[in-house]
Amino acid sequence: MQAYTQTSKSKTHEHQKNSFTMDKTKKININGESLAYFDNEKGNTTLLFLHGAFINKEYWNEQLSYFSKNYRVIVIDLPGHGKSTHNKEDWTGPRFGKDISKFIQELAIKNVIIIGHSFGSDVMLETVAINDTDIIGLIEIDHMKNVGMELPKEVVDQIVQGLNADFENTCQQFAKQALLSEATDSGIVSRLLADYKEMNPEIGIPLLEYGFSYPRREAELLKELELKLYSIHVNYAPTNEESLKKYLTDNYELHIIEGTCHYPMIESPEKLNTLLEKLFTEIVKNE
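The structure corresponding to this sequence follows.
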């Protein structure tokens, strides 16, 4: 495990001032869905950023701005999120993996490094399980902190009951308790809760229900993983590194960065970008 700190701390609201504008968002039909994405269409190595559940590609604005100078950068709204459609009723991990694998094939992109945040990390695992020829690197952000660990059934039942009774309030309370902290900037809190409020419960509920049972599938995919996994975790919540070792042995590299929440791409973009740049260089060098 490597701890990572940086003395300069970017302010939360600066992402809006300095962000890369996605004024050329494209659409592509993939497996019955119209997926919205941005692609700067230049560079030999492609960075494919996958956002987490209930948010969208806009969370990667600072990474677009920073990395578009030297890489081909693609951000995409996952099905049912952002400006992408939600025609299907399958909200399982394998479904998302099939969509992103097909997306990679349709754009004929090579030398792909996938950066998955939260649920996007599971989509990343599903994708590489289908397509391991075009992908050269895997980076997960603040997700696999307790690999293979499922919530107790009574806790899951209580959450699902709350989601069906009051989806908006239950989601927001979950975000406050599990993804944010009292020290999190109010701008981040407001932004996240607003996005959670806008989530369609017909998508959100089955997506979360599937997610509660996903640790078993996640563990299986990690055991079969051939590419090295780079993990970037934020220290607002601890990481059970033994769980990573259990399924990956030495096929991973863990980096811990300082922060108060689950969203380092908007809370500490400079810190995250510096670390990502280092990892991208390492991945390309070892290819």
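The chain has one domain: 2-150+215-286.
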